[in-house]
Amino acid sequence: MFTGLVTDIGRVASVGGAERLRRFRIETAYEPATLALGASIACSGPCLTVVASGPRPGGGWFEVDAAAETLARTTVSGWTEGTRVNLERSLRIGDELGGHIVTGHVDGVAEILSREEVTGGEWGPTARFVVGAPAALMRFIAEKGSVCLDGTSLTVNGVDATSFDVLIIPHTLGVTTWGERRAGDRLNLEVDLMARYAARLVEAGRPA
Questions:
Q1: What are the chain's domains?
Q2: How many helices (H) and strands (E) in the chain?
């Protein structure tokens, strides 16, 4: 379980494996002693399991495996050496829940349709992104609701039939990969957990 609050930007150091199972080594500033085997880390959205770890200058590294389902349903299949990924450690009891409840189970892939620089100022730029999402997932996205994009908890500003928009503040642009994002980039999308279950309850209550 996660909150969608990114705590580090990792870098893919190597990619190995075959078409249906790939292993990624990710470099991070996380203390290597805390990267336990079997730990769950959200890597730009998908929850992946640490299968190996070790130290490096300035931090540590860990390795994760991505199987066919993850490769097919997320942007992980496109990761190459040098790809930067948003990282979040799993939530611990007693931690502050600053974002929203995120499972790390990606529902689909969205695409940035446009980026608009809204304002500058002494704290840096703010940017508005219009994001297109698969039609099957748009019904779970509501104005002022929550959405998780590439592992980042965000508030939806507006919604139409095929897209929605989010506003990214200077802090988030600086400490996540959002500062690098442009129109045409693909994003891992996880819809709000409560919206998903609410829709399922409505469907279950309809007459057969």
A1: 8-89 (2.40.30.20), 108-203 (2.40.30.20)
A2: 4, 12
